[in-house]
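Put briefly, the fold is written as integer tokens. One such record reads:
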Amino acid sequence: MKLELTDQSALRQLPWGDLKSYLDAQGWHLTGRIGDKALVYVPDPTATDAVEILVPARDDLGDYASRMAEAIQILAEREERSALAVYRDLTTSGLDVVRLCAPGADASGAIAIEDGVVLYRETENLMLSAACSVVDARRNYHLRKVTEATDYLKTVRLGPSERGSYVLTVLSPVQPRLGRQQQLDLGEEPFARTVTLRLADALSAAKRAADRALADNAFDPFDAAVSQGVSANLCDAIARLAETARGVDIGLTWARTRPAGRPRQSVHFTPEVGEVLREAAAIFRRSEPMTDRRVTGFVVALDRPVDQFDGNATLRVLIDERPRRVRVRFEEAVYPQVIQAFQDKSAISLRGDLFPTGQRWEIRNPRALQILDDQDGDEADEVPSLESTA
């Protein structure tokens, strides 16, 4: 994009509060006011030079665009960079910015269209997984089921690609902090900021967990990182990004209108680390409990003879389209029904919570047991399925 400082529309759309926040963050000093129209900023109040920036304090001023153009030009000259670069920085003053750099782009910074589709899709999943973790830190999510997270995602925007390989930018608006910029303990952060902070923590935690898991040949580091936002969804998204881009750098910078109290962060993921994360995602999903499910299957074994039955039994059901043996302990009130189903080889239906235990599953809190009289009783031919209550 080419920005002319005479582009009145672009300059009027630039909030004066973003210019003020930029100057505050860069160490400029507020030395005076011109009524309710402008704030006077200087780089050094002890200096004798006459460099100053007048920040319009209202967006309805007739010379608003020219004042913003003048400020951008002064900053560009003092920082020895282009006015366009300054303008872009100003437009992100009220935004937390996530940057994904794909080193695998060609010399012109372009990538294959199918790779681009993957990058955009998995970037969405990355942001959504972080938002879900803020609501409830878990090993795995049905991403579109967490309402607060999906509502947040509607506020996020994709920015223009930046120079340097292929750089995808994600813009997350953040409410400005009122009061002194350095006061970082003014209460609970808005949801949008907690998401980007959680994403930053989760990225670092995922990288550390992958390194430790590879060194120790253990999954424990990933389990320990769940509270920091690491989940199957996050691991999958990073793995696909790293694989598609042949390595990916994910960086975060914080809105200057709401200082985060931490520096810019960047984490690099190689395709090899992506492979570890993909395996971690699979283990997360295999070990995630499935709560409040309706299960149909057959009682294939009782732990004790019928006359000594203590409620412990084994069912055969389908989980993930595969026949599984599932342990369950029934309450005494339903012993007769369980024994009858076992002896008659009748299918049963019940609700319960399925938990992985090593290579097997168990049903906890079994309830609403029914014998399905319309089954043909030949359990070898067909195994009834497991369904959600939804």
Observations:
- The longest helix spans residues 191-216.
- The first strand starts at residue 29 and ends at 34.
- Residues 30 and 66 are 20 Å apart (CA to CA).
- The chain has three domains: 8-91, 95-286, 290-388.
